[in-house]
């Protein structure tokens, strides 16, 4: 037992007691308050406070003549374990096999970044930057627009919407199964969301090329108009989509099978290249048709024809169908209007003007 430090403390206490006894006869005596960093005794009136000497940290041997301890008892060793102090003041050592403090788990030597308890003594979780079983990716951030959503790699906007129901409309990255990721615009608002935009074409700057043709436009600007994916990307999308929607942001729209996307490619270059498409839903100026066959033309203005993907009420004869399908034998649009085409040879002028032919209209073609 060290004795040197004990004698110093006893002497200080004895001196303080003697001084207190002397001051009992003169309660008005006031000892000046000291600011000596080494501690000491401060007395105000007849009250005495004893401040103990500061603690002394020793490393290795000591020079106290009465210190007979073995040096090995005071040697500080450094461990390879990670130590942290929790809010409760409990010292935790990650890797010692004892879950404590702020640790979620601790399996000792079995801690592993691909195991049930990571080397940070945390349970594995999506977003921790560590690739775990069941995760395809983990980039350590919650952003859904960088090609990794909820630790999965999305192939469609519908998958993004399913993985993150709060993901907003905007530009995203999809892995379509091709050699490179593809930038697209996801519409998360229209009829339940999850739509992948494959073409965006404005009335004042239309693309005007049949959808079955390979005609990529502004691939690095999926949120702008005009925009169009290449044919190869569209083909890859067909494996994971079932619906094709064409609309101009209003109440007028067409909904059909995604397999109809490349209809017309066997029809040749003639402007009479048209076919009867089965539409699950077709809405025009308040008239709704369901499960209806409508004769649809495919070649656009740039192809030298009426409009890319258009429906002419009066030209239904091209598919041996009855004219004016929206209301029996009564035209809904102006004569020969190429509805749903923004590159239309004849625009609708009959009030209310069809959505796709209103000033500033932008037609969107999307898959889900």
Automatic annotation (TrEMBL):
Keyword Phosphoprotein: no
Classification via Pfam families: DUF4215, Fibrinogen_C
Record's compositionally biased regions (Low complexity): 43-62, 75-88
Superkingdom of the organism of origin: Bacteria
PROSITE patterns with a match to the protein in the record: FIBRINOGEN_C_2, PROKAR_LIPOPROTEIN
Annotated protein name in UniProt: Fibrinogen-like YCDxxxxGGGW domain-containing protein
Residue ranges, annotated region (Disordered): 25-95
Domain Fibrinogen C-terminal: 148-200
Lineage start: Bacteria, Pseudomonadati, Myxococcota, Polyangia, Nannocystales
Keyword vocabulary terms for this entry: Disulfide bond, Repeat, Signal
Stretches with biased composition (Acidic residues): 63-74
